[in-house]
């Protein structure tokens, strides 16, 4: 029996979603850039504001603020479905047999698809205050340091830190209307 997700209209959500088996997939631009491209596409399609993000090797964190008719579940379902197929295609193009075998085994283990890239569902927390939003944004931006990926927050390219500190919208545009 599937649990119903409670969503509150007009609220911001802190979301975490993880690669199946915590496979460190997002360590090269060829796998990260399609994630950014898809985030950009689905934020417009589902009318959500992207307030912050970090793409870690095996998971990602998002701060999403729905303002249209789509729910956060709709956004995540479509985003994960599309990025999973795109990730498998990229692995095929790069002849990454290690990844293709892992995705195939995960698909068999879960009996959910031929290939499985993402863990089922996602973890979310409703943001009720600006203080909590700032805490989560800080957590997102400091995650690469805590994980030992970089010593300096500025050195990690796949987070919204540069969007906020340097107004660098090169990788993806962040919605900053909340502050």
For the termini, the CA-CA separation is 40 Å
Discrete helix count: 5
CATH class: Alpha Beta
Fraction in helix = 40-55%
- Summed up, the domain count is 1
- At the fourth CATH level, what is the homologous superfamily? Transposase IS200-like
Which sequence of strands runs across the widest sheet? 2-3-1-4
Radius of gyration: 16 Å
Categorize the overall geometry: globular
Overall pLDDT: 92
Helices and strands in order, then pairings?
Blueprint (H helix, E strand, L loop, with lengths): L11 E7 L10 H17 L2 E8 L3 E8 L5 H22 L3 H14 L12 E5 L2 H17 L14 H6 L13
Antiparallel strand pairs: 1-3, 1-4, 2-3
Helix pairs in contact: 1-2
How is this structure best described in words?
This protein is of the alpha+beta class. The protein has a single domain (12-166), classed as Alpha-Beta Plaits. The protein contains 5 helices and 4 strands. It has helices at residues 29-45, 72-93, 97-110, 130-146, 161-166, and strands at 12-18, 48-55, 59-66, 123-127. The protein has a 4-stranded antiparallel β-sheet with strand order 2-3-1-4, with helices on both faces. A hairpin with a 3-residue loop joins β2 (48-55) and β3. α1 (29-45) packs antiparallel against α2. The mean pLDDT is 92.
Could you name the key traits of this structure?
179 residues, alpha+beta, Alpha-Beta Plaits, four-stranded antiparallel β-sheet, 4 strands
Summarize the structure.
The chain is of the alpha+beta class. It is built from five helices and four strands; from the N terminus they run βαββααβαα.
């Amino acid at each position: 029996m599937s649990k119903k997700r409670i969503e509150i209209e007009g609220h911001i959500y802190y979301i975490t979603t993880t690669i199946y088996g915590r496979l460190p997939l997002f360590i090269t631009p060829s796998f990260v850039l399609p994630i950014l491209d898809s985030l950009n596409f689905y934020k417009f399609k589902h009318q959500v504001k992207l307030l912050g993000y970090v793409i870690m090797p095996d998971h990602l964190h998002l701060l999403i603020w729905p303002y249209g008719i789509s729910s956060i579940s709709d956004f995540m379902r479509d985003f994960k479905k599309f990025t999973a197929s795109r990730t498998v295609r990229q692995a095929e193009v790069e002849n990454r047999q290690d990844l293709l075998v892992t995705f195939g085994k995960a698909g068999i283990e879960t009996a959910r698809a031929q290939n499985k890239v993402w863990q089922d569902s996602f973890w979310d927390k409703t943001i009720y205050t600006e203080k909590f939003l700032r805490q989560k944004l800080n957590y997102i931006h400091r995650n690469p340091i805590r994980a030992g990926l970089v010593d300096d927050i500025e050195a990690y390219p796949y987070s919204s830190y540069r969007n906020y500190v340097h107004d660098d919208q090169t990788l993806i545009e962040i919605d900053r209307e909340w502050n």
